[in-house]
Amino acid sequence: MDYSINFSSKTIKFILEAIEFRLQKYQDQISELTDEDELSDIGNDCYLLEAIYEDLKKYQIANRNQNLELYKLSKQPPFIDQELASAPTHSLEDKVTFPIPNYNISKDKVAKIQVENQIPGIEKKLIPLGHMESFEVWLPKIDRAILLDEDIKLLKNDCARIEKICDRLFSLLDCICSDSYKWRENVDELEKITSWEIVQEKLLECEFEYQAIAINYEPTQISPRSNNFLECNSNVESWDAIPEKWIVTLYNFEQSEFGFGYKLNSAPICFEMQISRKLHPEVNRSEAEKEKISPPCSSASLT
User: Fold this and answer.
1) How many structural domains compose the chain?
2) What is the distance between the alpha carbons of residues 201 and 186, in angstroms, rounded to a whole number?
């Protein structure tokens, strides 16, 4: 039997005891019955209850083993300790989620509303690292037009904490640089980056200085493959399963076009980290196999 509901240990124990009690009652009744139909009915009930009892016992054992594994895992130190995982508090915390009326109004009006009401242009997000761990980051909010002085101060002060998180992530996950012409002038795009120290060295070569770091998370996606990967005039329908990834973006700030507030620079440097190595979009799978480069995703074709 398949139990889609997760029972607690106490619930399982209670149900098992109830079934044992009912089975004992049935056994007492069977010893006193002589009618074949009644005996058959109770016998069928006993058979069903015994099957449920055995399934629940298996479920209980599996649940106990799972809880034991979780208990063992909980005793392990976290990948990112709690102090490092917690983002600092915004000085305008009570206004971070303040709604801006009429989302369709122009950006300059949004900027004025932000300044007049001291509404931050960033929000706190929780970045997952699996089922049991996560960390907090401050990221630009998409429905805001500018960053306030308080936003800039917070992002700059939080930079050292995010660098330490990046150091942990880069030491574990495959990473490449993307979307940066400056970086491409200096290094191979497919070069694997294995530490934050290497990043710092490369940034020095590029003469790129940053004021803030953002880390975002993209879950696994299933999407149509680019036509670049398919032969000309191909009618094959093809899809990619793109693994989850963490994106690190290095920012600088500049004065906004409204004459007040700030915005992020338009040419940041980005890094992508995922379990399997990411390929440059111009490298197709057949070339990757020839070069013995692990493909970044699972693919399927429908004919």
Assistant:
1) 2
2) 11
Query: Are 47 and 172 within one domain?
Result: no
Do residues 223 and 206 lie in contact, with contact meaning Cβ atoms separated by under 8 Å?
no
The rounded mean pLDDT for the chain is: 75
Q: How far apart are the first and last CA of the chain?
A: 37
What confidence score (pLDDT) does residue 278 get?
39
At residue 225, the 3 state secondary structure works out as coil
Quick check: 256 and 263 in contact, CB under 8 A? yes
Which residues have C-beta within 8 Å of that of residue 88, sequence separation ≥ 6? 154, 157, 158, 161
Instruction: Assess whether 62 and 88 both reside in one domain.
Output: no
> Average of pLDDT values for 102-119?
84
pLDDT band at 275 (very low <50, low <70, confident <90, very high): low
4-8, 95-99, 114-118, 282-286: which is most confident: 114-118
Sort 42 into a burial class: Cβ within 10 Å, 0-12 / 13-18 / 19+: middle
- Say how many residues make up the chain: 303
Q: Which residues contact 178 (CB under 8 A, 6 or more apart)?
A: 189, 270, 271, 272, 278
* Enclosing domain of residue 33: 9-74
Both 219 and 112 in a single domain?
yes
Task: Report the predicted TM-score, pTM, of the whole model to 2 decimal places.
Answer: 0.62
How far apart, in whole angstroms, are the C-alpha atoms of residue 269 and residue 180?
Answer: 5
The strand pair at 245-251 and 237-242 is best described as unpaired
- Is residue 95 located within the same domain as residue 57? no
Cα–Cα distance, 199 to 217 (Å, whole number)? 20
